Amino acid sequence: MKTTLHITSGDIAGSNLAKSGLTGEVFVWHDILYDGPRNPGWPTDDTLGARAWFLGQATRGGLDQEHILRTLKNQYRRIAAAAEYEWIVLWFDACLFDQAMLVHVLACLLHQGIRQVELLCVDAFPGIVPFNGLGQLEPSQLASLYDRRRPVTDAQFRFAVLADRAFAVQDQKLLAELADSADAPLPWIPAAMARWLKEQPDPASGLGRLESLALQAIRAGCTTPAEIFSAVAAADTPPQYWGDITLWAKINHLADREPPLVRIDGPTLRLPQWEGIADLQRFRITILPDKADA
Fold first, then answer.
1. At residue 247, does pLDDT exceed 50?
2. What is the tens place of the pLDDT at every residue in 82-91?
3. DSSP assignment of the chain, as one string?
4. What is the CATH class of 2-198?
5. How much is the pTM?
């Protein structure tokens, strides 16, 4: 048998993990598993096709749909083959993005009958404030965490299946119950669920938390993507679940509303949803008056 498969989120974290000197192979999972169409647990072919379309739309063509579909299929092939390893070690942050990924990966491993799994969930590191994720850590710092890994228990597997179902079907009642759960077997899940519930449209404004923070920054005079990013990052509670691409999507949503709340001026009509599509320094975002207040 092969020795160890390390599964993590984020290419930077994966690259540094591969340089850490730890034994085994490193595999980086890619998907936004708290949002978009999917079924709980192991995906169907229809689910993978729907997700490839969703992610293609979410990146506004920055990622080709066929490329996404190949990536998704490869990920599940790697999970199906994970029984070849003596141990699978999961490296994830405590944020919403990683926790949704963690419970899905655990549910899929359980579906394949794979239980030789250890978990490292990191929500802080000495000297790094604010701590926003494993991608901030150098290879040696990642290696120093390795002895903190613990075997995934039966209770954690079962809880992961439940949490994965809540994200997959967007069961608001179950999401709220898990957000309020005490002594959760995966103790970072309640906060992740609570953060996702904050992203649901507010009944009065129709905006989620991240959209509200972006609008607040623009109203305060931030006009460039970089300025808005810095202001929102300072206002949000770490660890952040989002990155620049997610924030650009939220700003685009503000411009796509009817009536629009902001205007985007730049080389393209909307902020790019993938690197290299357009120069972000050439964009300016300005507030538009709310017609209801005019």
1. yes
2. 999 999 999 9
3. -EEEEEEEESHHHHHHHHTS--SSEEEEE---TTSSS--SSSPPHHHHHHHHHHHHHHTTTSS-HHHHHHHHHHHHHHHHTGGGEEEEEEEEESSHHHHHHHHHHHHHHHHTT---EEEEEES-BTTBSS---GGGS-HHHHHHTGGG-EEPPHHHHHHHHHHHHHHHHT-HHHHHHHHT-SS-SSTTHHHHHHHHHHTSPPTTT---HHHHHHHHHHHTT--SHHHHHHHHHHHSPSSPS--HHHHHHHHHHHHHSSS-SEEEESSSSS--SSTTSS-GGG-EEEE---TTT-
4. alpha beta
5. 0.92
